[in-house]
Amino acid sequence: MAVSLNTNFDQSTLPQRLLALITEELKVPLERIARTGELAHLGATDSSVALNDISLICQTAIRLVDNYALGLKLVNFEPGTLELEPVAASSVLAEVIAELEPLAASHGIKLELELYGRHLPVIANARALAAAMSSAGASLLEVISSKYGSDYQTSLKLCLHHGRGVAEAGWYWSGSEIDAEVLRRGWALLGRSRQPLAPNLSGQASGIFIADLLLESMNSKLKSSKFHNLTGLAASLKPSSQLVLV
Amino acid sequence: MRQPTILLIEPDKLFAQTYKKALEASDYTVFLVTNAQEAISCADAHKPDLVVLEVELAKHNGIEFLYEFRSYPEWQSIPVIINTNISRGKFAASSNELQLLGVSELLYKPKSSLAKLISILANELEYATAND
């Protein structure tokens, strides 16, 4: 089941709102780098561990900026230039899982890829789809990690399953923190609040909005979705009709 | 001599580990929690000598935690240092409110450092011990 979102606000201010949120969010990795460096300097951690941590933090920040730039390019600066073609969504999702594994491990969260049924290729752009899923996934890792206690063991699932005439691809988990209403309010608050998603979440969430921006360039949207008793954020992707005939 | 105990309330796991390691390296015993509910249980179980608090928490924020924390007579004199990502201008609580809640220091993380936190923490503990 998926609930689509009606984002009733001035779309023309979206890039500025996102930029404001990302500027705020980028302070966190820079600060993490500063503190990790300081910790190594104090001799409280091994310098090779600190360097690994710094490398991971940098990759996460670069991913955020890269995906934001790609989203802006596709939606605002060069709309209509994205080539949509038949894409094997399962292989894109597998790449996303591999990309986010180190970040998930640092938060103590297990990532799982679950493919339900057989899927035809979908009409999408592999780079934009991967960027959207990794953006949303990285944000959810931060949000879920800060939501639960340090000893809580949880997993985040990247699922591909059948919807009504479409393939649904998205992130699912056992919590119910992000529903359609929360996302709607999030859009309204975007750029005006440090944490636009919900008062019962902490951490940053601009990646979720970047994912939505990227999906928009492929005529899709991020939606609040439920599947197999899991809550999630997913996008509907049209199967490639050309290949259905073949 | 018993090591001073710190209740560290920090929802960001990466920051939390960094602060915990730095404080432990300075000979403090650290109890790390990520939300207000855990913090109250932890304070009840361990009676910390000082609290380091990030106010931006899931569910109940840090200010709500402080109201709850200070409502118990035995915790009213425990020093609290706010160490947060929220800048002063965006802070929901006024200086008066923070003073009433017994906040000793308000550190803005991007402009602070581990060394500064440790130094302030040592001063606060020394002051608290002297006034016991």
Question: What key attributes describe this structure?
Answer:
heterodimer; A: 246 residues; alpha+beta; six-stranded mixed β-sheet; 7 helices; 8 strands; globular; disordered N terminus; B: 132 residues; alpha/beta
Distance between the termini of chain A: 30 Å
Percent strand of chain B: 15-25%
Strand order of the largest sheet of chain A: 1-7-8-6-5-3
Report the C-alpha radius of gyration of chain A, rounded: 18 Å
Which structural class should the secondary elements of chain A be placed in? alpha+beta
The H/E string of chain A reads EHHEHEEHEEHHEEH
Average of pLDDT of chain A: 82
What overall form of chain B do the CA principal axes indicate? Answer: globular
Sheet with most strands of chain B: 5 strands, parallel
Portion in strands of chain A: 15-25%
Poorly predicted parts of chain A: 1-6
**Which two chains have the most extensive interface, and how many residues on each?**
A-B, 33 and 30 residues
Percent helix of chain B, as a range, is 40-55%
Q: Care to count the β-strands of chain B?
A: 5
Largest sheet features of chain A = 6 strands, mixed
The averaged pLDDT of chain B comes out at 91
Query: What is the N-to-C order of secondary-structure elements of chain B (H for helix, E for strand)?
Result: EHEHEHEHEH
Oligomer kind: heterodimer
What's the number of helices of chain A?
7
